[in-house]
Amino acid sequence: MLTRRSLLFLSAAAFATGIYGQSPARPKLVLAIAVDQFRYDYLTRFRADYSGGLKTMLTQGAVFTNARYEHVPTVTAIGHSTFLSGATPSVSGIIGNDWIDRASGKKVTSVQDASVQLLGGSENPTGSSPRRLLVSTLGDEMKIADPRTKVVGVSLKDRSAILPAGHMANGAYWFDNNSGSFVSSTYYFPDLPAWVKEFNGGHPADHYAGKQWNDTTFVAAGPKLYASLPASPWGNELIEAFAEQAMQSEQIGKGPQTDLLTVSFSSNDYVGHKVGPDDPAVRDMADRTDKLMAKLFAFVDRQVGMRNVVVVLTADHGVSPVPEVNEKRHMPGGRLTGEPGDTVQKALTAKYGEGKWVLGTMEYGVFLDWKLIAEKKLNRQQVVEAATEAVRAMPHIFRAYTYDALLHGEITHDFIGDRVTNGFYPARSADVFYLPEPYWISGKTGTGHGTPFSYDTHVPVIFMGPGIKPGVYTEAIKPNDIAPTLATLLSVETPSGSVGRALSEILK
């Protein structure tokens, strides 16, 4: 006869193993996909076109309809660093694609690393690494928990391959426009793996010579062809083919542990910048991405079985409509005239005398020369305020913030101010940070992104696989929630800088 104590023990044991059904086995693979410059509304506007991977995720996954980034600028490096770290730039240190290094006074990229060398490229021997990322990623925490874990990142862009994969990755690979090959750096290994050399030896980029797309005929093999491929469907095809080869050669998902493969499809961004979100080419790219994802899923299914795979999909940012298109709609917006860096240079020269006051302007930030300010024995805060006032006076500038106002939190704390604050890291951020009015962009052609407005921040977030409850979830979340959710699902430590929450509503 069972005693009350025995019944309690059996009840606890049954609960632990899942009395209402077997607990899902630990996944063999996490497949983390980012589509560069993929607005959320591409899922709804083009829904009727999808018959492949996007359709699968929309029908079988947990779909969040209101995921928005909580930082600015909304650019590639920050979005990709956020993806699997859960951190904002204020914590991760990745404040943009590029910034001015205060020590050297020179421009650096988010992954530039002079201590390592490029492997496999024909030019630019300086390599790239995740060393500027100050926090851990999901892959790092997975490898700390189980050193057998394999982590690999793939993209056309170095930052998009490196930042999601993290510090401890087995490898990150990106496309070199000069050689038409996939490359890496000595941060990961002294030489490219044999399988990468073999893949490159097949000259896959050359296969697109003579192809046509969107009224463009791609020229003969060589650097001109390679440089044109990113802004075409063929760039994404190269990424998918390389991801398959990486998975097969590295035996990803074949061990007793859970592995991580990060894939970032870059070509959507290159095309989108040229033509904007309303152009038929963007719709065609979305449709082709849907089919490429289906191809990747089919390969993964053959390798490890999709029932053993958790997939997460997001984008690093959205994009603004082309101003000329908005004008026809009677919507606000336009193209900014004047360059804030030139405006600041003229204003400071007029007020304080000759000198190269501006070191650089990038992604809504103006960087001043602190050494020059010190040499002239000027008050830095006053000089920065003068620079900021000059930017504020420019047409169609929505807001402009000084370095010190952001440092001390002396700003309006609405959603815009909070997103600007989340993008501020004192050791790297600009002296003046400004935002254009909604729908106003720089550049004479095409379009851009980077603002705190919904067209730049609203992106897809979809989870699919074992342990995930499918459905449509309308509550507001942020992409920062992806990393802690996956960490919870895998029972590993949450990445060190994460500001997100585990999306418990989708976890079985």
Describe the protein.
- The chain has 508 residues and is α/β, with parallel strands linked by helices.
- The chain folds into two domains: 29-317 and 451-506, Alkaline Phosphatase, subunit A; 338-394 and 397-436, Gyrase A, domain 2.
- The protein contains 20 helices and 21 strands.
- The protein has an eleven-stranded mixed sheet, sandwiched between helices.
- The relative contact order is 0.19.
Task: Kindly summarize this structure in a few lines.
This protein is an alpha/beta fold and 508 residues long. It has 2 domains: 29-317 and 451-506, Alkaline Phosphatase, subunit A, CATH 3.40.720; 338-394 and 397-436, Gyrase A, domain 2 (2-Layer Sandwich), CATH 3.30.1360.
Globally, the shape reads globular
Tally of helical segments: 20
Looking at the structure, the CATH topology of the largest domain is Alkaline Phosphatase, subunit A
Kindly state the percentage of residues in helix.
Answer: 25-40%
Radius of gyration: 24 Å
Specify the structural class.
alpha/beta
At CATH level 2, the architecture of the largest domain is: 3-Layer(aba) Sandwich
What is the beta-strand fraction? 15-25%
Beta-strand segment tally: 21
CATH class of the largest domain: Alpha Beta
Low-confidence stretches: 1-23
Look at the structure and give the mean pLDDT: 94
Set out the fold topology.
Layout: H1 4-17, E1 29-35, H2 41-45, H3 53-60, E2 62-68, H4 76-83, H5 89-92, E3 98-100, E4 107-109, E5 112-119, E6 126-128, H6 138-145, E7 151-154, H7 158-165, E8 171-176, E9 181-185, H8 194-201, E10 212-213, E11 216-217, H9 223-228, H10 233-249, E12 259-265, H11 267-275, H12 280-303, E13 309-314, H13 323-328, E14 334-335, H14 340-352, E15 358-362, E16 365-368, H15 370-375, H16 380-392, E17 397-402, H17 403-407, H18 415-422, E18 432-436, E19 440-441, H19 454-457, E20 458-464, E21 471-473, H20 482-490
Parallel strand pairs: 1-12, 1-13, 2-21, 7-8, 7-12, 14-19
Antiparallel strand pairs: 2-20, 3-4, 5-6, 5-9, 8-9, 10-11, 13-20, 15-16, 16-18, 17-18
